[in-house]
């Protein structure tokens, strides 16, 4: 029997505002739970609190849709102000259908509406953009944790829920990480029969995000989850980040 | 702090042959680990052992490729015998490119090569097909567990690793389940601000499969993982199975 994984949701945070140090709030919440974070631990943080801390909240009333947004909004039957924000956050439209815009974001993520979300945000006309660079966000939160933990450096994953082609339902995936191997490449290693493993590249950071979500109550404000027992993917260096999970366009049959 | 999740890989099984009762082997392995399974527990079982127990092993030497397989094999530069098997296991080709066949399987899964795999299978010319109906497999394993556990009915998820558009690396997903809510639909419920959650449908069974994979050593023969603390998705009835995760073609922009 391998040593197992333990996944624990930390207590809710207060409502997050621009400039809040999430690392400090995470350490406060672990202390409340009589838990001390160490090297080897992984903290999965919800994109929403990261975006809020980075001031990525926008008021639809402040958005002036341009002609391209007006026309696209009419085509897909959505609010032209939201479409304007989606376009400004995107470098490429993958699909535009009634009420759905699948885009490639400026940060390289392919998702609906550039990841812009209105749930769990106060105010009817308030929306939240993705962090501009969520790998940088993960590195910053990790540095804040190390400051508050006398140099212990748990890994950080920034997670968001994305839909998928072919399968119903959303899963949490990683849009940022620091201190964790995002993609574990087993190609060339031997399987249990001694044969080379042909296609085994495992999206570790995405699986960490998915696992963390199971420990959380979706309607609560539990924005940080601690995973213990995933030490084998922990690294002292921040590493390549979740950008390593982005499939290059020339190896992608579906964009 | 919510009660957390505990994920434990069970000890390796002996090599599985046609007709083996996986439920009995799982219960034996839990006893070795001084663990007793109960209602509310979830056992994630690797597709490979399920397919082996169901006699889904094939010898390439026994396969006679037809003209369609020969022509497609030449187009994509793969073994025509493998392509013949992929075609016989599929109802629709989604993409055919050099060395890659993305298909919709007879069971409704969209994946590379109809999920046919040659790693972790003894013999150079031996391949393994997906179970014919992996929800039925999950129900059967669950019934075997209940037999061996005096009526306790842990849930069962049959997991396989699939690649994804847009993102590198494979993640484990559910191709079968029994006794677990596969898709948790939060639409219409309120978020933490009291607003309706618009698009929150969570692929629970896929996240359980992904979480389980993190507790496993990929080269070992650890084919069964126990997840504790996911009781809120456990059901006494076997339920709709992982088929509920299949996105209907008319709601899919990518096939």
Description of the structure:
2 copies of one chain form a homodimer. Chain A has 255 residues and is an alpha+beta fold. In chain A, the strands form 4 sheets. The first copy, chain A, has a 5-stranded mixed beta sheet with strand order 1-12-2-8-9, with helices on both faces. Chain A is globular and about 55 Å long. The model of chain A has no long low-confidence stretch (mean pLDDT 92). In chain A, 24% of the residues lie in helices and 23% in strands. At the A-B interface, β1, β9, β11 and α6 of A face β1, β9, β11 and α6 of B.
Q: What's a concise summary of this model?
A:
The structure is a homodimer of 255-residue chains. Chain A has helices spanning 22-32, 47-53, 67-76, 80-88, 134-148, 204-213, and strands spanning 5-9, 42-46, 57-59, 90-97, 100-105, 110-112, 126-128, 155-162, 171-178, 184-185, 201-202, 224-228.
Key descriptive features of the protein:
255 residues; three-stranded antiparallel β-sheet; 6 helices; homodimer
Describe the SSE topology.
Two copies of one chain form a homodimer.
Chain A: E1 5-9, H1 22-32, E2 42-46, H2 47-53, E3 57-59, H3 67-76, H4 80-88, E4 90-97, E5 100-105, E6 110-112, E7 126-128, H5 134-148, E8 155-162, E9 171-178, E10 184-185, E11 201-202, H6 204-213, E12 224-228
Parallel strand pairs in A: 2-8
Antiparallel strand pairs in A: 1-12, 2-12, 3-7, 4-5, 5-6, 8-9, 10-11
